[in-house]
Amino acid sequence: MKLLVIGLGRCGGKIADELAKINKKAKAKRGLEIIVDAFAVDTDPADLNSLRAIKPDPQHRILIESPRTDGDSLVRMSEIGAGIITENSNRILNTVRAAGRLFETDAFLLAASVIGGTGSGGMPVMAQALKDCYQDKPVYALAVLPFQDEEAEEERTTYNAAISLKSLYSVADAVFVADNQRYVSRDATLRDKPAKINELMVAPFYDLLCAGEEEKTKYVGASMADFGNIRETLTGWTAIGYGQSPLPSRGLFGRWRSFKSKAADRHAGVQAAESAISQLPVDCQPADAERALYLVLAPSADIKPEMFQELGGFLKSVSRGAVIRSCDYPRGRGEMAVTVLLSGLSSIERIKGYYDIVGGLVRKVKMKQADAEKKARAMEAAARKIPSLL
Questions:
Q1: In this structure, which of 119, 210, 305, 348 has its CB flanked by the most CB atoms within 10 Å?
Q2: Cβ-contact 142, 15 below 8 angstroms
């Protein structure tokens, strides 16, 4: 599966940069291209200049200049971000079109944080613009939830998140959710390592995107994770996880194996799947998924029907009624890796929490805006009584 990636705002640009990095890795290690092009859109030139893998030209690092920013190039309100991207959507689309890679693109992936302005407001707008122009290509989004201490800093953070997520869900074909706090809860040292979190966030996409692009027969699975299988799986709220489990040694010549070793092979798949689910980037319940897909990467000799039977049984037991697709990717050695997609999630508690809180905030924010406008009008009226030196 080949993606065209557009990152919006500081966070989105960094994630797009990470996806460009794994594309370079796929080219170097597997001879595959999985990201046909990557773009970053931002109002801050410093953020664009800090990127490493996205091409360093103004066609790929798109600077949006707007009088709506607060004087330091930052946009903090989702409504302002939405307005800025609306004004510049044709320019962005023309730039993407001019790059000449659309015919190779299977799908679009937008990436942004949901708490800023440029990304949270711009991502739903850009998703709609892409869908209007390219109706034959799905538009997916990677929405990044904030750290808990960011939520505590300002009510606007929660408001931005809720309005962005609601708008995005209504237009995107699927929304991958990644929660920054989820990573910190597993490793507190990551709070000050945003680059590492971005790397962990993007890593599960690597095998999934590569598997469907393989052309060498020895690396083509019996059931490929191609664009068709992935597209049929993705819908609504989505989580992607990745887990690994070591395989038992084959011995000196790798031919004769005990019954215990073969059983260990089967269990390795379940162990890797359990790890993938525990490493999901957002707290959710597999039982809430409408659809699921799992991809097994292992040496071809270790991909056996019994392993799929046991792994499939495990995923059925935890997803409870989801339509499950199984895929294999005969690569690697010494370990079994499983990528798990859970899609069509009926509920994500963190997002529901935003909706519950913001119901009351909406009225409060509108009253605050109305009060500010009233004060501004009063100031202007008072100023009109004063003579001018000009």
A1: 119
A2: yes
